[in-house]
Automatic annotation (TrEMBL):
It is found in: Cytoplasm. PANTHER family: UDP-N-ACETYLMURAMOYL-TRIPEPTIDE--D-ALANYL-D-ALANINE LIGASE. The lineage of its organism: Bacteria, Pseudomonadati, Bacteroidota, Flavobacteriia, Flavobacteriales. Residues 96-275 form the Mur ligase central domain. It catalyses: D-alanyl-D-alanine + UDP-N-acetyl-alpha-D-muramoyl-L-alanyl-gamma-D-glutamyl-meso-2,6-diaminopimelate + ATP = UDP-N-acetyl-alpha-D-muramoyl-L-alanyl-gamma-D-glutamyl-meso-2,6-diaminopimeloyl-D-alanyl-D-alanine + ADP + phosphate + H(+). Involved in cell wall formation. Catalyzes the final step in the synthesis of UDP-N-acetylmuramoyl-pentapeptide, the precursor of murein. It comes from Croceitalea vernalis. It holds the Pfam family Mur_ligase_C. This is UDP-N-acetylmuramoyl-tripeptide--D-alanyl-D-alanine ligase. Belongs to the MurCDEF family. MurF subfamily. Residues 299-412 form the Mur ligase C-terminal domain.
């Protein structure tokens, strides 16, 4: 069966599923494989749950009239998604970067949805499987699709770009994330810039933060760019006002008061404003969209509990985002401040040095009440209290009473530090 024929079947059953626990009636089940699972074995289960078809790549699971046998299910999913994208009129905006991708995506979606039929990556489905699944949610009436792209090694963004074929792109920043896979900061810049490489070689449009020297230099001679800046008058002016604790900013004499914690969220809001302006969304709708966005999923959330004011930013962490969170929290107007910092993952050989640098930075900034959690932080040289595991911290918290304070909770996803809140 060729790609065009398979696409005709997909249009009759436009719902792709890869998990038999989430099968919906008349969907198409893609029997993906992984190191510890074989989706082919669950094809019959998917069909019993009323999937229209199951796409498999092992003949022993073939059921005549119900399964479609292909050479490689994953490649078929990716090729079908790319073909589907080419058959639709939707404009694709791709996002990548070390920090802030998901928040930026959600803000752009909030703005563009005011005027256009818009879809966006759900959650963090931003890899070689998630990007194709996102593209397959494009409908005939979709006008704009915002596709988030994540990567932890070279050539990954290049590959995802070849699938999504974006018309526009934006890189949030170049920070110390996935240092192990990229081989250092230079590798990160090279890897993330693969989105630029695609856009420039195909003469597509680029959005940029012109106050980011790396972005501005890489795009200095490119014509099809649209950027924002606080200082450079050749770009669209957007001004940071405050972040105490919520970010406020100004464009075209309009003040926007967000529900986002941390000055690092300024650029996330600014690019959403810029893209809204590019697509002719009204100023009042842009303001309403940014102000109406509520952070969730442990990202830059402001929570009040037992007289504590908690900044919960525990969805993920790397040295760059940790540093930005500490700098922003240090400027918060509060007498009593407490830090709960958890291990940062995927740092490879640099893990020891990077954790030591963050502990030293927290001390230099004057944070006295600091709790470090995880095996990496447990091994740093510091006067701060250290806990090898979350359970050790949990047991300690049972023995003390914290006076009303502003609290920052920050760590990698695997640390699940949001659990601290219920133990305060």
């Amino acid at each position: 069966m060729d790609l065009a024929e398979l696409h005709k079947i997909f249009l009759q059953h436009p719902n792709a599923c890869t998990d038999t626990r989430k099968i919906e009636k008349n969907c198409i089940y893609f029997a993906l494989k992984g190191p510890n699972f074989n989706g082919n074995k669950f094809a019959k289960d998917a069909l019993n749950k009323e999937a229209a078809y199951a796409i498999i790549d092992e003949e022993q699971f073939h059921i005549i009239g119900k399964t479609i046998l292909v050479a490689d299910v994953l490649k078929t999913l990716q090729n079908l998604a790319s073909y589907h994208r080419s058959q639709n009129r939707a404009k694709i905006i791709s996002l990548t970067g070390s920090n802030g991708k998901t928040t930026t995506k959600e803000l752009i979606y909030s703005v563009l949805s005011k005027k256009y039929k818009t879809i966006a990556t759900e959650g963090n489905l931003n890899n070689h499987i998630g990007v194709p699944l996102t593209l397959l949610t494009i409908k005939e009436d979709t006008e704009i699709a915002i596709v988030e792209m994540g990567a932890n090694h070279q050539k990954e963004i290049e590959f995802l770009s070849s699938i999504a074929q974006p018309d526009f792109g934006y890189i949030t920043n170049f920070g110390k994330a996935h240092l192990e896979g990229f081989g250092g900061l230079k590798g990160i810049i090279k890897g993330k810039s693969e989105l630029y490489d695609y856009l420039l070689s195909n003469k597509k449009h680029v959005f940029l933060n012109a106050d980011d020297n790396i972005q501005e230099q890489k795009l200095s001679h490119y014509i099809k760019k649209f950027g924002f800046s606080e200082t450079n008058k050749q770009y669209y002016p957007i001004k940071f006002l405050d972040a105490n604790p919520l970010v406020s900013l100004e464009f075209e004499n309009i003040i926007v008061r967000t529900q986002l914690i941390g000055s690092y969220n300024f650029t996330n809001c600014a690019i959403a404003i810029l893209i809204g302006k590019y697509f002719n969304v009204s100023k009042t709708d842009i303001k309403a969209a940014i102000e109406g966005y509520e952070p969730k999923n442990n990202r830059s959330q402001l929570i009040k509990k037992n007289e504590h004011r908690i900044v919960l930013d525990a969805y993920n962490a790397n040295p760059s985002s940790m540093k930005a969170a500490l700098e922003s929290f240090s400027k918060l107007d509060s007498e009593n401040k407490i830090l709960f910092l958890g291990d940062m993952f995927e740092l490879g050989k640099t893990a020891s040095d990077e954790h030591q640098a963050i502990a030293s930075l927290a001390l230099k900034m004057g944070f006295e009440n600091t709790f470090l959690i995880g095996e990496n932080f447990f091994n740093v040289a510091t006067s701060f209290q250290k806990f090898k595991s979350f359970e050790d911290l949990k047991n300690y918290l049972k023995t003390i009473i914290l006076k009303p304070s502003s609290i920052l909770i920050k760590g990698s996803r695997g640390m699940a530090l949001e659990r601290i809140i219920e133990n305060l």
